[in-house]
Amino acid sequence: MKITRFEDPVGHISYGCLHADGSTTLVDGDPLHSPVDTGKPANVAKLLAPIEPVDILCIGLNYAKHAEEGGKPCPEHPVLFMKTTSAVQNPGDPVVLPRTLRSDRVDYECELVVVIGRDCKNATEEDALGYVAGYTCGNDISARDWQSMWGGGQFCRGKTFDTFAPMGPCLVTPDELTDPNNLAIKTTLNDQVMQDWTTADMIFSVPKLIAFLSGSTTLRAGTVIFTGTPHGVGFARQPPVWLQPGDTVSVEIEGIGVLTNPVVEEEV
Ligand SMILES: NC(=O)N[C@@H](O)C(=O)O
C-alpha cells in the first residue's frame, strides 16, 4: 500500500491510500501498524510529509563511492547524526536557503528513509524488517559550510536548519516494497540528473542499520532513519554545485515515487 498524509480543504489531517490511477481513498486505523483502505474517496487539498517523526536518525558515509568522493575512508561502524523534527518539509514545499545564519553552500542528498512501525530494541538482522512500517524518499539537505567549517566537527548544525528534511511523497508498506536494498535512487536538479545509483550499494544494509541502532537506542514507533546518500553530491563536483533560489530539486526512488521541492531564500 502507498500511504499518504494530507490536509483536506478545511485543514483536517488524514491518511490516504494512493492508487496507480492517481486517486486517493481514505485510510482507517493506525497508518504505522494496520492501515485499512476504506475505499472512500479522499478530498486531498495539500499533500504533507507522510509521517510526523518522533526522532530523525541519519546515517553518514553509507555508500563507498560517496565516502571516496569526500576523501573519507569507509567507516567501520555506521556513522550516526540527527536532525530535529522541525527540519521536516512537505513534498512540494520550499527548501529555504538560510540567510539569518547565512549559508551559500547548501547541497542535496537523495536518501531512502525507513519508518519504524513499532518500538524496537536489540533487533537482530533477521527480525529487523519486521519493525518497519514502510519506506519513503528523503532529501538530506546540508549546509556544507556549517557542517564542515563552522560546526565544530559535528554534522548536526549543517543538517538541521528548518526545511532541511523533506520527505515524501508517500509511505510504501513492506508488503509492497519487499527489498529496500535493491532500489534505483536518483536526484535531479532542475532537469539535470546529479545522483543515479542503487540502494544495493549500501555499506550497511537496512536490516544491519536497524540492528545496530536498536542495540543502543530504543527506536520508538514513528522514528525515521535516513540511510545515507550515494555519490554525485554538489560539494564533490568541480566546480561545486550549490542549491540556488529558483531551483527545483527532486529525489526519485524505484517503487516509491518522486519527492520534489522548490528552492527559495529565507526572507530576513
Ligand atoms: N557528506 C555527508 O554529509 N554525507 C552524509 O550525509 C551521507 O549521507 O553520507
Question: Would you kindly provide a written description of the structure presented here, covering whatever features stand out?
Answer:
The chain is mainly beta and 268 residues long. It folds into two domains: 1-48, FAH (SH3 type barrels), CATH 2.30.30.370; 51-265, Fumarylacetoacetate hydrolase, domain 2 (Alpha-Beta Complex). It has four helices and 19 strands. It has helices at 64-69, 144-149, 156-159, 206-214; strands at 2-7, 13-18, 24-28, 36-41, 46-48, 55-60, 79-83, 88-89, 95-97, 106-107, 110-116, 132-139, 142-143, 165-172, 184-189, 192-198, 223-226, 248-253, 257-265. β1 and β2 (13-18) form a beta hairpin. The longest helix is centred in the last third of the chain and has 9 residues, at 206-214. The chain is globular and about 50 Å long.
Write a concise keyword list for the protein shown above.
metal-binding; mainly beta; 268 residues; SH3 type barrels; Fumarylacetoacetase_C_sf; binds (2S)-(carbamoylamino)(hydroxy)ethanoic acid; single chain; 12-stranded mixed β-sheet; 5-stranded mixed β-sheet; globular
CATH superfamily of the largest domain: Fumarylacetoacetase-like, C-terminal domain
Number of helices: 4
Q: Given the helix and strand composition, which structural class is it?
A: mainly beta
From the alpha-carbon coordinates, what is the Rg to the nearest angstrom?
Answer: 18 Å
- Give the bound compounds: (2S)-(carbamoylamino)(hydroxy)ethanoic acid
**Intertermini distance:** 42 Å
Please give the number of β-strands.
19
Keywords: Lyase, Metal-binding
Family: Belongs to the FAH family.
Domain Fumarylacetoacetase-like C-terminal: 56-264
EC number: 4.3.2.3
